[in-house]
C-alpha cells in the first residue's frame, strides 16, 4: 500500500507547522516558510490534492487582503498506544495530535507480546471502524521499556517479561498496513508534554515518569534526546545502594526497587503485617492484596505509615534528581505517573531535597511540577513519534 505523504521538504515543514501550532493563515504560513506566493500556492495545492491539508475558513483580517486558514486534512488520523502499569490505552488523534477517541482496558503484559500486540490490533481496528476510517496514517506505541528505536523492539525490560527483542513495530506495521513507531514511554510522555503540556514553552526539560517502570525523557535544545543507542534517561536502574531490595532487572538497590509501584506495595504489605498501619491492614484483609492505589488512598486519608512510604520514595527520587538537574540544567522538571492523590506529598518531598541540595545555578528558578496531562501525554507523544515520520518528505 503506497503511503501518502509530503513530497518536498517545504510540504513537510508546512505540515509540521500545522501540527504544532494548529490552523494558520496562508499569508502567515508563506512568510514562515519564506516561499514566494506562487511556489507556496503550488505546494498547498499538492498537499490539498493528497488530502493532507484543507481549508479551515477565512482568517481574521489583518487590515490587508483577506487570507484563508489552512489545517491538516481530516483524513489524517493517527493511532496511539500506551502500555504500562496494568493498562492498555489506545487512542485515535487528528493530524494536530488532539485525541478524538480513547479506549482503556486492563492488560497483563506477562501474557506476552503476541497476545498484547494482537489486542492492540483489535482495538485500533475498532476505533478506526467507529470513526469511519478505512486506514490510519500511522501508529505510535509507547512501552515501559528501553526500546531499540532502530528496530522498534523493547530490550531487556523488567516491566515487560518475555518481550525482549520482540518486533513490535514490524508486527504491528504488517497487521495494520501503515507506518508504526515504537519508543520508551517516558520519551513519548516528554514529547507529549512538549507538544501540548507544561513543557510547551521549554526547550530544555526533564520528564520523570513514575509507576511500575521509572524512566526519564530528556528534551534538550527543543528535541527529544535518545542517546547513542536510544537508551538515554533509563534512570530506573540507577543503583542507590548495593545491598538494597532485589530489582526486576536482577540487580539490587535500583531506583525502581525502592520507588516503583511494586516496591511501594511490598513495603505497604510489610507495614500492614507488622501492625504499623490499621488503614493498610484493613485494606489487605478486605482484598487479600494491596495495590499502589491502596497506598495512595491510605496516605491521602492521613495514614502515617503510608505517608512515610511515599515520603521515603520521594526523598530517594529527589536525590536522583539532584544529580540529573546539576548535570543537565533543565528549565523545568515535570513529574508524571504518580498515583492519584499522592502527587502533592511526593512533590513537596522531592522539591525539599532538590532545592536544598542542588547548586543555585541549576535550580535558581527551576520549577518542579506535576504533569497536568496525566497519561494523555503518553498518547499524544506516541502519535507525535509517528507523525514526525508521516510529515517527512519521501
Ligand atoms: Zn534494576
Total number of strands: 15
CATH topology of the largest domain: Nucleotidyltransferase, domain 5
- Mean pLDDT comes to 94
Largest sheet: 5 strands, mixed
Named once each, the bound ligands are: zinc ion
Fraction of residues in helices? 40-55%
In percent terms, what proportion of residues is strand? 15-25%
Based on the structure given, which CATH architecture of the largest domain is correct? 2-Layer Sandwich
Q: What is the strand arrangement across the widest sheet?
A: 6-5-4-7-10
Radius of gyration computed on alpha carbons: 23 Å
- Compressed to H and E, one letter per element, the order equals HEHHEEEEEHEEEHEHEEEHHHHHEHHEH
Q: Please report the distance between the alpha carbons of the first and last residues.
A: 15 Å
Content-based structural category: alpha/beta
Amino acid at each position: 500500500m503506497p503511503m501518502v505523504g509530503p513530497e518536498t521538504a517545504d510540504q513537510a515543514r508546512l505540515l509540521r507547522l500545522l501540527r504544532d501550532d494548529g490552523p494558520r493563515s496562508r499569508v502567515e504560513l508563506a512568510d514562515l516558510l519564506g516561499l514566494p506566493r506562487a511556489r507556496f500556492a503550488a505546494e498547498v495545492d499538492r498537499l490539498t490534492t493528497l488530502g493532507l491539508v484543507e481549508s479551515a475558513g477565512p482568517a481574521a483580517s489583518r487590515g490587508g487582503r483577506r487570507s484563508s486558514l489552512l489545517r491538516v486534512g481530516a483524513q489524517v488520523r493517527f493511532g496511539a498506544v500506551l502500555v504500562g502499569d496494568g493498562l492498555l490505552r489506545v487512542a485515535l488523534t487528528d493530524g494536530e495530535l488532539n485525541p478524538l477517541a480513547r479506549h482503556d482496558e486492563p492488560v497483563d503484559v506477562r501474557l506476552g507480546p503476541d497476545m498484547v500486540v494482537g489486542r492492540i490490533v483489535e482495538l485500533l481496528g475498532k476505533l478506526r471502524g467507529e470513526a469511519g476510517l478505512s486506514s490510519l496514517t500511522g501508529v505510535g506505541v509507547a512501552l515501559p521499556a528501553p526500546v531499540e528505536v532502530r528496530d522498534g523492539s523493547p530490550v531487556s525490560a523488567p516491566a515487560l517479561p518475555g518481550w525482549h527483542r520482540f518486533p513490535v513495530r514490524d508486527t504491528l506495521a504488517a497487521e495494520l498496513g501503515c507506518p508504526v513507531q515504537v519508543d520508551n514511554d517516558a520519551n513519548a510522555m516528554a514529547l507529549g508534554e512538549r507538544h501540548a503540556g507544561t513543557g510547551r514553552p521549554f526547550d530544555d526539560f526533564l520528564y520523570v515518569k513514575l509507576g511500575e517502570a521509572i524512566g526519564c525523557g530528556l528534551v534538550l535544545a527543543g528535541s527529544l534526546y535518545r542517546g547513542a543507542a536510544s537508551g538515554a534517561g533509563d534512570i530506573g536502574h540507577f543503583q542507590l545502594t548495593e545491598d538494597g531490595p532485589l530489582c526486576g532487572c536482577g540487580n539490587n538497590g535500583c531506583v525502581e526497587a525502592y520507588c516503583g509501584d511494586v516496591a511501594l506495595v511490598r513495603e505497604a504489605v510489610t507495614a500492614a503485617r507488622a501492625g504499623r498501619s490499621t488503614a493498610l491492614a484493613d485494606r489487605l484483609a478486605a482484598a487479600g492484596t494491596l495495590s499502589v492505589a491502596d497506598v495512595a488512598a491510605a496516605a491521602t486519608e492521613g495514614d502515617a505509615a503510608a505517608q512515610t512510604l511515599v515520603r521515603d520514595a520521594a526523598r530517594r527520587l529527589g536525590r536522583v534528581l539532584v544529580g540529573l538537574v546539576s548535570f543537565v540544567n533543565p528549565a523545568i522538571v515535570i513529574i508524571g505517573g504518580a498515583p492519584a492523590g499522592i502527587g502533592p506529598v511526593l512533590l513537596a518531598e522531592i522539591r525539599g531535597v532538590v532545592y536544598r541540595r542542588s547548586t543555585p545555578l541549576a535550580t535558581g528558578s527551576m520549577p518542579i511540577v506535576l504533569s497536568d496531562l496525566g497519561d494523555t501525554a503518553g498518547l499524544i507523544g506516541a502519535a507525535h513519534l509517528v507523525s514526525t515520520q508521516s510529515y517527512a518528505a519521501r
